[in-house]
Amino acid sequence: MVIRTFLRTWWIIAVNNFQNQLLTPGSSILFIIGKLFNFVFTFLVIVAIFSQIPNLNGYSYQQAVIVVLVLNFLDSLYGFLFRAIYMFRPVLLRGDFDLDLLKPLPATFRPLFSGPDFLDLPPLLIQFGCIVYFMIRYQFALSPVSTLIAIFTFVLSLLLIYSLLLIIASVCVLTTEVDNLVWIYRSFIRAGTVPTDIYRGAFRFLLDFVVPVSALITIPAQSLIGLLTPTGLAYSSLITLLFLLVSHYTWSFSLSRYTSAGG
Amino acid sequence: MTKYWLYARLQLQNYLIYRVNFIFWRFQVIISFITSYYLWQAVAQQRGSIGVYSLNQIYVYFIVGYLLRTLIFSTRTADIGGEIQSGSLSGRLLRPMGVIKSALGLDIVDKIFNLGFMTLEFGLIIYFLRPDIVLPSPANLLIFCFLTLIAILSFFFYSLVISFFSFWLDQAWSSRFLLGVVFVNLFSGQFIPLDFLPYPIVGLLKFTPYPYFFYYPLRFWLELEPPSRLLEIVIPSFAFLGLNYFLATRLWRRGLRQYQSYGH
User: Fold this and answer.
1) B10: which of A114, A162, A202, B180 is 20 to 30 A away, CA to CA?
2) B38 reaches A (C-beta below 8 A)
């Protein structure tokens, strides 16, 4: 029942958002152009790196291309699904969040799901097409089992980003700060332009366990190029489970501290 | 002059209202730097050099670039676009001071404030990463400072131009996103030294203001530009400063004529 209400409400809000974006076609086009430039540029970074070195810590050019495509695809997917996090701060500053809490919806609806961004759809489709095209062109064949495993790693990545953003939303409830936290997460994500295996030391630890870009980007990409190990899959599953638990605990904690006082 | 100073001081107090916000902002800047630094370290370490850059030059590119980013790209002019869109620009217009001049005053305070924090962060970076930062020759250091000063002014007017587009566009953030975030981040050389890109793209970028904001000043710090190229870089830098100034003042006058303060 809750899931049905959730999906129906999400659909109504999604249609409204889409109509809103159609009202300002000029602005929407500028956004889409910007997103496409970002996509092409990250691709160029890989071209630039491989114009200087023959392989990247064992990764071939073809494998690195799939990694950067997966980064862009997942980034667009998360932008499409979770854009609402960027609009959560004003709601808290006005002290309006309690109005959402009164509604028969999960409390996480407003900060995470209330603003699907359709401007991410055109890049998303192009990036999906590019992944399929380059997988075929570079002959990365997937067996039925490895396809299932790949889908599983992408689902884990989705759950992980949900958890990370929920933690950010929790901090926002406590401090009314969200924008820069999202930018911190986005800065880390940029490290996923290349497979995170190439990093060393404390920075690698951060990417594996604090903002797990490895599980978010590299593991799903490895599942497509046949480099995923059982250890990688176990790591991805455990870190996702851990972040899910932590995020729900922090969210419950922050809601218990919410005062509706604004800021 | 006193009123501009007072206005700037008020801005400083505004910062201190949302202290956590500011601390997270600075933290985000550090993380952004660290990501670029480690990415290129991981790439360059495989060969000890990459392109014309030695491993140390790559480090210096991003570390001195960290300083430049704070000096050049920290700005409050983006707020003006939002004010035009919401109609709250009227508040600025009622004050007995020029909007562009007060924006410049705010930007100076913003840069000083950010620079204060950056000095602390820079100390930590030097302590932990221990890079071997070699100062350029006095002549190149002078050129670097000169180009940086032009870049600060040029970016200030460029950012104003983007904000003033809001007189005609429905959403202030769309033009800011494309021209002020995506183009500036990608084409100024903040993520990647531009000479790593395919040659036709680099050739094209020379005709845009972006490399003159960040990439060329750094090239002079690293002594990768011969003195014979000085005029080739200084003249376009000045030209883009003039163009941005001209566009900013012209768009401001034209935009005001049709500004209705209704907000949306």
Assistant:
1) B180
2) yes
